[in-house]
Every structure is written in structure tokens, then in C-alpha cells.
Amino acid sequence: MGNLQAKQQVTLEGKPLVGQPGPEIELLVREMIGRVADKWTMLILEELAEHGTVRFTRLGDLVGGISQKMLTKTLRQLESDGLVQRTVHPVIPPHVDYRLTELGLSLSEAFCGVWEWAEKYHGQVAQSRRDFQSVVAAQGLSETSSATSPTAATHTP
Q1: Helical axes 102-110 vs 112-139, angle rounded to 10°
Q2: What is the dihedral of CA 20, 80, 30, 34, to 10 degrees?
Q3: What is the pLDDT of residue 6?
């Protein structure tokens, strides 16, 4: 076994974490990663960060391709986590606005790096996908069977 050095965990500000995070912190991190790994959550956070206060129907239009049921479900989960504030205006027809809370803005900023990464590397990812498709097509395999194929595992484009 090699001499492995422990990777020091740091805060968003780059400061070292003191001690080990407790199980409640680890659970929260896992929940938040699971939440933002959901494509709808990421897209909703992005649109609210960009547009500020947005009506329900407009938010659905901005996100695009999301059903009202999924938009409602995702917004309720974000609201329960304290990331989104919902305001109902007492008019007919009902007028409901959504906006990010300070907590939601901070999470949105934390995941801004994913968008920056995508902008920087989208060409490389697209090329890798084309290369992979060429290998799969040349071998006469489907994408799913190529993952278990010994030749696909040893191939490097």
C-alpha cells in the first residue's frame, strides 16, 4: 500500500474544516446533492436566480418542458427546504409568485460552478460522445451492451 495523505476538507471560502462533520451534516449534504442533482431543481434555481420573482406559469415557461405537477412538486420541496419563498396574492384569479430566499441564492451560487464547467468543457464532452458513438457503431453494439463488453472497456479513443 502506498503512503496516502488524507485530503483536507475545506469550506466554500477555502478555510479548513475543523473536526469531522457530524452525521446530521453528512445527511444534509447527501440530501442537497440529491435535490440539486434532479434536473428540474437545477433549472428552477437557475431561472429564479436569473429572473428574481417569477409567477408560477412564467416559471414553467422559463424552465421549459416541465409539467405543472412536477413544477409544483419541485417548488414545494424547495419551499420546505427554505430555498424558495412562495407568495400568494389574494386576487381572482390567484396570483402566486416564487423567489429564491437568501439560502436559495447561496445554494444557487454554490452550484454555479457546474454551469461554468459546462460552458468551458461542452465541446470536449460533445467530442467524447461522438467518439464513443463511433466506437459503439463500429463494434455493432448498443450503448448499454458496450459498457459490459471487454473490448469497449479496454478501448481508448
Answers
A1: 40
A2: -160
A3: 43
